[in-house]
Design a protein that fits this description.
Shape of chain A: elongated
Structural class of chain A: alpha/beta
Oligomer: homodimer
Strand content of chain A: 15-25%
Radius of gyration of chain A: 26 Å
Helix content of chain A: 40-55%
Number of helices of chain A: 12
Chain lengths: 339, 339
DNA sequence: TAAGGAAATGTTATCGATTTCATAATTATA
DNA sequence: TATAATTATGAAATCGATAACATTTCCTTA
């Protein structure tokens, strides 16, 4: 309730002085500072940040758009973002698109109304394409950075932090090939179009490179959930001849896959090898422990946020994507197939 | 850049009319509405919500304080909160205390500066006790609601939504007892003091009720992570006589526990039964599938948000805790111990 | 069709902190 | 000590949308 005005009156100074007390205390005489301190205590003043933000034209809020908070990998990235945001004095506002089922206009509004000083897009960018198409007129949106997602033509002008998805997928596939697998299925994550495309390309590249036939029926579109990993795996197992290895676009689908394989009486990895993506914390303790491609989630989050801060501060920025290293983690869900 | 003023000028109306266009369009004549629509398009206007929020004295933001976004159960609750928040036009700002390692004053600031129209506290309340102690003076904070946490004396004046943790824990323990277990270990989640205490009480109650001795060394403090479940389980297995069942305060610790038990050459459930809490989505596909107490996470989130909205709207509210039903889900990680 | 009432629109003060510009107080310099 | 150069403080404008209040326009009905 009490405002700078009340404090100023109580302290016998002007509102400008009270404002300086908070923003540039060093330019106040000690005596004045003390008076204000006392008045603040007396009046029980606490700043109205709505007013401050309005006047300053800055919200100190970073909006993070995420397909689902539930996905562990995004949780890691978020943690990295939060760490840096905290350092820099930003708060994080999360928009969970629930795998892109959220109405676009709601989101669009967030972009164009000064609500955020910056926007981080994780995973899928498709929601953005729509939202940003509004920006034809002179509407301005805050700086945007896209992470965990490969650039598509529409968004290639945003900076981005990610692994080399194509190379990572090739690595994973070649790991399987080197073990002797020839029929390798791929379950994609259709949501993140860019990533999914790259990973599929990496898979195909590896197959081609080793003169293996790519069977189109072995390539399926998943939605990154355990449930979908299970569903698609059941379908794969129903084929007269099932693949000897399954490459999944993320660990959750891989875990679902393993469950169904074991459930059908087959063994992992003896009958079918499974490999995932992300190295979530459940991968290590799964049975068998899951071979996967690790992404440095927290590092991605930190780098993303640092870069965004750079842009916000108006500093020179490199718009070419920042590629962080991935790593193949070999555990026990992959092996040479038993004939 | 362009403001209502610019739009008003372009449309040949007053700023008040432009404001009405957005807030009570039905009271404008169609003709006027059209003029404004056109002017908005022409000027590329988009509303400055910082100004609107300031003027209205409302931020339309709900702050959710959460021990860690990574915990799946909280993810479920969050989803419920988001659903309702979306309906009601609120945005969600998340403060991840990283298991209460976040500095208090930073948080406190959020509470007293009009940044949030309401606050939801999930799990541990300890951060709040400190933050709110500042409220001695006339500082006002927005409505607060506490969920997934049992009331402790300090916060008993906040409404809350949760399961009956004590009863749930008793149910879980009695399930084990009914299977013939006598040496039952309990791994608590010390973070959420209230919950943890209640669950421990429920465990002790069941033991007492069935004339079983409660061995203090079988009760340990965990921190709700997989890692801690593993660490404590390894310790339990090193005893000359290990327990035949382990009750964990959440599923993640339970999954870690199962991993270590199998890793040590023992079998689940033949040698040791394991039971968790929360029914996270990994519980169903674990090997063996995890017996657990299910909490209706999304429902908790929804009810929490609805109640908070009630309070914000100034409606009459029942301050006694809202108890939602829990459910024992029996899978295959529990069985009669083999002698 | 004039009067009364409702509906539509305009004028202007306002929210609270910051900031510019002006002025007073202090210190340094000659 | 007078004057210039700093430094500290105050007065008042400002950010952009909203809301209270005033006024005008449009209907309705006697």
């Amino acid at each position: 309730m009490s405002s700078v005005k009340a404090v100023a009156k109580e302290a016998g100074v002007s509102t400008a002085t009270v404002s300086r007390y908070f923003n540039t205390p060093e330019q106040l005489k000690e005596n004045t500072r003390n008076k204000v301190t006392l008045a603040i205590k007396k009046t029980g003043y606490s700043m109205n940040s709505l007013a401050r933000n309005f006047r300053r034209g800055k919200s100190n809020v970073i909006v993070v758009v995420i397909p689902s908070i539930g996905v562990p990998h995004f949780g890691d990235v978020l943690k990295g973002i939060e760490t840096v945001a905290g350092e820099k004095g930003f708060s994080i506002m999360i928009i969970d698109t629930q795998f892109n089922t959220m109405p676009f206009d709601k989101m669009a509004n967030t972009f164009f109304s000064n609500q955020a000083d910056g926007i981080i897009l994780l995973g899928s960018v498709s929601p953005f394409k729509n939202a940003l198409s509004r920006s034809n007129s002179s509407e301005k949106h805050p700086p945007i950075i896209v992470s965990c997602e490969n650039a598509t033509p529409d968004i290639s002008n945003f900076p981005s932090v990610r692994i080399d998805n194509k190379a990572a997928s090739t690595t994973a596939t070649e790991h399987l090939i080197s073990l002797g697998h020839q029929e390798i299925a791929y379950i994609s994550g259709s949501l993140s179009s860019g990533v999914s495309g790259e990973r599929e390309a990496g898979y195909r590249l590896a197959m081609d490179k080793h003169d293996l036939e790519t069977v189109e029926e072995l390539i399926s579109d998943g939605n990154l959930t355990i449930e979908d990993g299970r569903r698609i795996t059941r379908r794969l197992l129903n084929r007269k001849k099932y693949p000897t290895a399954i490459l999944c676009a993320n660990d959750e689908m891989a875990l679902g896959s393993i469950y169904e394989i074991k459930n059908s009486g087959l063994r992992v990895p003896e009958d079918i090898s499974v490999i995932g993506f992300d190295n979530i914390r459940y991968a290590e303790i799964s049975d068998p422990p899951l071979t996967t491609i690790a992404q440095p989630g927290e590092e991605i989050g930190e780098k993303t946020m640092y870069q965004l801060c750079h842009i916000i501060e108006g500093l020179e920025v490199d718009y070419s994507p920042t590629i962080v290293p991935h790593q193949l983690i070999i555990r026990s869900s992959t092996a040479t197939p038993e004939k």
